[in-house]
Amino acid sequence: MKKIIYLAITAIVCISCGKPMQGVGGELVGANASSWSEPNPYGMVLIKRGSFEMGPADKDSLWGIHQDPRAISIDGFWMDETEITNAEYRQFLYWVKDSIIRERLYDPAYGGNELFKIEEDKDGNPIDPPILDWKRPIPSERRANEDELAAISSVNYIHPITKEQKLDHTQMNYRYEWFDYTEAALRKNRVNPLERNRNTDLPADPNPVMISKDTAYITEDGRIVTETITRPLSSLFDFLHTYIVNIYPDTTCWVNDFNNAYNEPYMRNYFSYAGYNDYPVVGISWEQATAFCVWRTDFLIKSLNLRNGRVIEPYRLPTESEFEYAARGGKSENKYPWQGDLLTGQKGCFLGNFKPERGNYLKDGHLITSKVASFSPNEFGLYDMAGNVSEWTSTTFLESGPEIMSDMNPEYRYNAAKEDPYAMKKKVVRGGSWKDVAKFIRSDTRTSEYQNEQRSFIGFRCVRTQIGLSKVKGKK
Prior knowledge:
The protein is α+β, with helices and mostly antiparallel strands. It contains seven helices and 19 strands. The chain has helices spanning 86-106, 146-153, 181-185, 253-256, 264-269, 286-304, 320-327; strands at residues 13-16, 35-37, 44-47, 50-54, 70-74, 77-80, 117-120, 126-132, 156-158, 165-167, 173-179, 210-218, 224-232, 240-246, 390-396, 426-430, 447-450, 458-459, 463-465. A hairpin with a 5-residue loop joins strand 12 (210-218) and strand 13 (224-232). The longest helix has 21 residues, at 86-106. The chain starts with 12 loop residues before the first strand and ends in an 11-residue tail after the last strand.
């Protein structure tokens, strides 16, 4: 089972420095490009590139499933071997909390300790704006002075009824910027009108391209405001979107998802009690899961000490096709992550955490979620690809689904604006959960949920595209 380990990955190994070839007698021998080897992601499994028939493997009149498979091909990618756990998500939450405290320790309103930010680089040049110094520990409450104690306690509040000191979840906001490489690369979105259409029979359209840009800010009373601005394209910065997401899980989902049920103990304990550390995090929206992927990427980049201009493949949510391919072990005939149509193994034990029969949740050994990796992995080494919790994908939900997508790395993405109809804000959910019957844990079954919903039965895992390992024979 995967455990939380705080790794400090120190380097990316440079393989080639891109130096021009010299002294070759005027022959065409090529020039090496710059390349590097990324470290293998911790806790992830490599899913090698392949192809399969996406969609129902056969008809099922009982559940009304119609066979309409489509052949697709997918590039290699790394995938978390388990769903993201409560402990792993708390690492993200505590990072946000600690960053707020460090900002306030630096703030003159709380004493203005300049040591909590780095204002100059190693050569003495000013850093504008200064960056947080994560190597400097936050003082313990016992040793903190009055100003420091005020900064540390400012992220908490006293519950008006129980008088308990609790983390103020309304402050746990993560701000990030996302550059839309795809939209920026489209020919129709070029700033120069001459580059938008290669048909020389047509005159260039001098009118500026209109683009939509997402931005966000926090009001004085603490509200997060998200806006979509439509304006003429002026530069690549118009493809840089800003988001602010409150990342605290909705612990009340256990009560709101089930009427007339006593689920208060889960509401109070599931995310915060250590006994649930290795259980999948729930109550996470698609927006929060996406923010987690961005933070995880940034967290890795900072540990690698990358040179300016060098990037790595980001952590992200899997596409719908990647999830199905990984769940089926790359085999078109597999309805489930395991071989065959049975839901139990040779000894009669269930192969996943779901809802057998008529409400006998305990028949598979678990009432709600189970610890990740409680059941055997599939052939790719992935756990809980059927049942336990349903999982977010990056794909925007359409009824037509894969039919309108490319047959190579298929994906449909639509970044819904705030003003768009709510029906346009659905994302594909895959895998089925602990509360679902057998139909919904099939690897070829599609479901959906609104991107801002938080459910007690939906979690997620991350993927990263594999790069740098393909071998192509060159000319000799």
